[in-house]
Amino acid sequence: NAGVMQNPRHLVRRRGQEARLRCSPVKGHSHVYWYRQLPEEGLKFMVYLQKENIIDESGMPKERFSAEFPKEGPSILRIQQVVRGDSAAYFCASSAGGNQPQHFGDGTRLSIL
Amino acid sequence: ELKVEQNPLFLSMQEGKNYTIYCNYSTTSDRLYWYRQDPGKSLESLFVLLSNGAVKQEGRLMASLDTKARLSTLHITAAVHDLSATYFCAVQGMDSSYKLIFGSGTRLLVRP
Predict the structure, then answer these.
(1) Do A43 and B45 touch (CB under 8 A)?
(2) Which portions of chain B are predicted below pLDDT 70?
(3) What is the DSSP code (8-state) at residue B9?
(4) Residue A55: exposed, middle, or buried by beta-carbon count in 10 A (0-12, 13-18, 19+)?
(5) How far is Cα A14 from Cα A107, in angstroms, rounded to an integer?
(6) Which end of chain A is more exposed for a tag (fewer CB within 10 A), N or C?
């Protein structure tokens, strides 16, 4: 069984460009979570999605950030017009239910030049 | 709002020594996790603690939970270099039970 797959592993963007981060959950999991980890810090919750629905986006900045989890295909975290402060590791997790253990992917390290 | 505090934030210890990492949280929770993270890597799940008084052990690591004190400990026995990593505790709140709230992490360096 494949675990949570994230790609790319590393992403470099220039200021003002767009970043798209992809996450394929564990097979059979319909709950996806995105977390952000700044250097030397713990993970911070961003958004929780179920298939085609955003359940809680309270941790996501109101501007430039968006997330989706379509009926088919991976979950996407999209950051428009990136700035230096967006540089971080972005982790995706999935679970079988909202209060079930979350399985983490290897993360995407985003660097902004 | 649920807050999680870990201490120490950084720990340098010699091989063979014992030490404890502490994790305090601010409101009632029914689930606490310990993770290990190596530099540039993902999170490896170490323990899930579900009830008051729960104690789990794996090798040189032992985790415990006191829900009344809102405190979890991760005890390291006879440390070895391979344990060098960052250790995080994370708590799931009662109301938004899907949301994991992480501590800042404890960077552990075990010196030969």
Answers:
(1) no
(2) 96
(3) S
(4) middle
(5) 20
(6) N
